[in-house]
Amino acid sequence: MTISKRFVRLKEQSSSSEFWEPTERHLELSDGTLEQKRYGFTLDSNRFIETGVPIKEDLQSIFVLGDSFVESTFADPEVRFVAQAARLIPEANVFNAGYSGTTTLQLLTVLINKIAGLAKSGDVVVICLPMSDGSALLESGHYWNASERYAPLVPGVQGQPSSWAEDVVPLLSTAFHFCRALGLEVLLVVSPFRKADFSTEGWFRAMYKRNRANYERKKEIMERLQEDARAVAAREGVPVLDLEKLVASEAENFYDELHLNVRGQNKVSEMLAGFIRESEVLAAS
């Protein structure tokens, strides 16, 4: 029997391209407001998406972790909310550590295997609850699945069936405790997902292949994830920015179910910068 090596997947940027461009499928699954053009990006030496703000070695660092919501693929570089927040917090280095398709389990891997080696005591980790979890938890084995996109191991190995509703709690709790063990400040952002009308919005029905049961199941999982994340943060005394309650009800902030348009990017950038300041985690505060 031939046994191949397996690897723990580290979700980080690796593209050699200088731009992202939406495909026809991306456009089909948007509400019509996503502009078809090239959206530039550059990576720094640690494969974070550059914000355009020069890094100063003597400053405190803020690492914003999450999935494509944080990555903000189809937004201009200066518009991405992490980039705007970096300009609003000039006394710290703000890093966009978002990566499309990252789950909470994969985020924990990035935190342990990458951020821990870059951060110093007193730095800040902002965990944006990945909405990719909603799709990963529909897989057999849930977080520990064998899918090409969400598997935590490469090649993927199917995990044992589990109660998906209980999985996020120990993962987030571990992330919080790990940060604090390293002397890092940790904050939680409850990421939003847009409420659309399944009966009338064609792009939304197309996303779920016109199957309302699939939509209701996904919605149930995502709402439960958000509830559990709030509960864990409250128990652990972690400050929370609840974007689900602040921006999700306004369709004008999104171009699809999960991703922010320019209006949403502008709004969230101000909220994030204000949240970080109000949480009193900045060394200069």
Automatic annotation (TrEMBL):
Gene3D superfamilies: SGNH hydrolase. Residues 64-265 form the SGNH hydrolase-type esterase domain. Keywords: Coiled coil. Pfam families: Lipase_GDSL_2. Residues 205-235 form a coiled coil. Transmembrane segments: none annotated. It comes from the Bacteria. The keyword RNA-binding does not apply. The keyword Ribosomal protein does not apply. This is SGNH hydrolase-type esterase domain-containing protein.
